[in-house]
Amino acid sequence: MKKITIAIDGFSSTGKSTLAKQLAKELEYVYVDTGAMYRAVAYFAMQNKFIGADFFDKETLIQALPNIQLEFRFNADLGFAEMYLNGENVEKQIRTIEVSNFVSKVAEISEVRAKLVEQQQEMGTNKAIVMDGRDIGTVVFPNAELKIFMTASAETRAQRRFDELQQKGDNVSYEDVLKNVMERDYIDTHREDSPLVIADDAIEIDNSYLNKEEQFAAVLELVNDVVKID
Question: So where does ATP get bound (predicted)?
């Protein structure tokens, strides 16, 4: 069976990572969560006081990029790879609402995107990879054999994110999460460098009313259709 590259793009909190993990496990492919990479850079900026509620020292962050080492390490107990920043497991820290508030601003920076895109393209050299993010089908892997673009209403996505954070014990309000979702949507779709857009050859999936099982079954069928083509 031929190996392909699967690019999954879409808005925040559409379940891209969940779907990508399901596909990678089913196909025995490598899974790469590019969002975790941008979150790790945002966390680095927060830790080093480069960014805050009312300031962002972009130039200092750009100068510090050579000091940022990102690595995915597989956790057999969890069944997926976790993000390590300069040798430290930051998987939990990068999933907070605080990091979510800054990640799109960090991802706007061309130098940050160039650094991470280069790493992402290296990861996909041998195909057999599922990668999710904002510009996978348009920038990272424009020749991917299968491109999926995921969307859902902002309210639906905010509720999903709110429920997830509540389960983790984070004290957040639905209103704050909805505001974050809408702000990220605006930044992601309006940035000058690699804005979030649907690739011409991508298949759009609105999962507002789909559960995880239905979504996975639909996309797996698309994968099988592509793999069968010589």
Answer: 10-18
